[in-house]
């Protein structure tokens, strides 16, 4: 299955799709984060939600990349002057935040061999994609809130066990990894199931989402370690933080597409679309 996944990844021009997806992600990143922070902030407050996101980005991008994103968030939060400017800003915020999900649907439809649609069907699909995108953004906010709860619980457990027992560092790291893995699995499962215009079994989705979450969690640590110890950013001067952000987004896009290809291969070889599962005509 690994060989078939790589072949499908190459045949679908995943590197090119990843580049387009990265471009949309970069333009949608700040609007998306603003909405996600706003949703999670309803429970824990804006400062706590934004702090959690910046902390996650710091682990993946290093201090420079996290500071760059934090600066963009701060600049985007400056209030607009006037009612019209505010309304226009809100509309542009929603359009920008949902654009990346539209590109995700396009990439997933290509992977699942879904034919293109035009006319009124295309307009309905556009509206469907935007509504699904908004729902996914709300789900992202909920997952961020869940991550805050679990991270706080793990940190509290670490302080408690550290004062009573020695040698709990490794189990707590494993627990933290399991929490991150579970949240990413749920996130990828929602995207793989809802965005493509194809009927996909939940069994196939969970298998692919788990593999993608594992690749993403491990890849996040490896990319963060590489970017934190290498001199990639320093070689580009003032643009160093932006280059680091672009590199991280592109690598994440490739992991996402590779996981989607694995889901498609699994569904067609061993899952719900396998030839031996289809009824004989």
Topology record:
Blueprint: H1 2-11, H2 14-44, H3 46-76, H4 83-111, H5 119-164, H6 169-194, H7 202-229, H8 240-269
Helix pairs in contact: 1-8, 2-3, 2-4, 2-5, 2-8, 3-5, 3-7, 3-8, 4-5, 5-6, 6-7, 7-8
| Computed structural class | mainly alpha
Mean pLDDT: 76
Radius of gyration: 20 Å
Number of domains: 1
Shape: globular
How many helices?
8
Roughly what percent helix? over 70%
Characterization of the model:
The protein is mainly alpha-helical and 281 residues long. The chain has one domain (2-277). It has eight helices and no strands. Helix 5 packs antiparallel against helix 6 (169-194). The protein is globular and about 55 Å long. The model has no long low-confidence stretch (mean pLDDT 76).
Concise description?
Helices cover 82% and strands 0% of the residues. It has 281 residues and is mostly helical.
List keywords for this structure.
281 residues; mainly alpha; 8 helices; 0% strand; globular
């Amino acid at each position: 299955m690994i060989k078939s996944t790589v072949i499908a990844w190459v045949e679908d021009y995943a590197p090119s799709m990843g580049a387009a997806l990265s471009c949309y992600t970069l333009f949608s990143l700040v609007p998306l984060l603003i909405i996600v922070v706003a949703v999670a902030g309803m429970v824990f407050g804006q400062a706590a939600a934004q702090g959690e996101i910046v902390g996650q980005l710091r682990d993946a991008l290093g201090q420079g990349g996290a500071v760059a994103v934090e600066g963009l968030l701060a600049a985007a939060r400056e209030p607009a002057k006037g009612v019209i400017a505010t309304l226009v800003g809100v509309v542009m915020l929603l359009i920008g935040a949902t654009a990346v999900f539209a590109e995700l649907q396009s990439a997933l439809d290509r992977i699942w061999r879904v034919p293109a649609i035009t006319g009124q069907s295309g307009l309905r699909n556009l509206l469907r994609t935007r509504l699904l995108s908004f729902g996914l953004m709300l789900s992202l906010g909920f997952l961020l809130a869940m991550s805050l709860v679990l991270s706080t619980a793990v940190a509290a457990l670490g302080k408690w066990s550290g004062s009573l027992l020695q040698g709990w560092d490794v189990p707590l790291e494993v627990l933290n990894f399991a929490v991150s893995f579970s949240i990413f699995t749920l996130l990828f499962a929602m995207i793989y199931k809802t965005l493509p215009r194809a009927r996909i079994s939940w069994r196939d989705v969970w298998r692919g989402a788990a593999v993608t979450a594992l690749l993403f969690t491990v890849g996040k640590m490896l990319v963060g370690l590489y970017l934190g110890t290498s001199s990639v950013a320093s070689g580009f001067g003032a643009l160093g933080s932006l280059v680091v952000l672009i590199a991280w987004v592109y690598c994440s896009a490739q992991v996402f597409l590779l996981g989607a290809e694995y889901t498609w291969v699994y569904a067609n070889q061993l899952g719900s679309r396998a030839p031996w599962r289809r009824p004989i005509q």
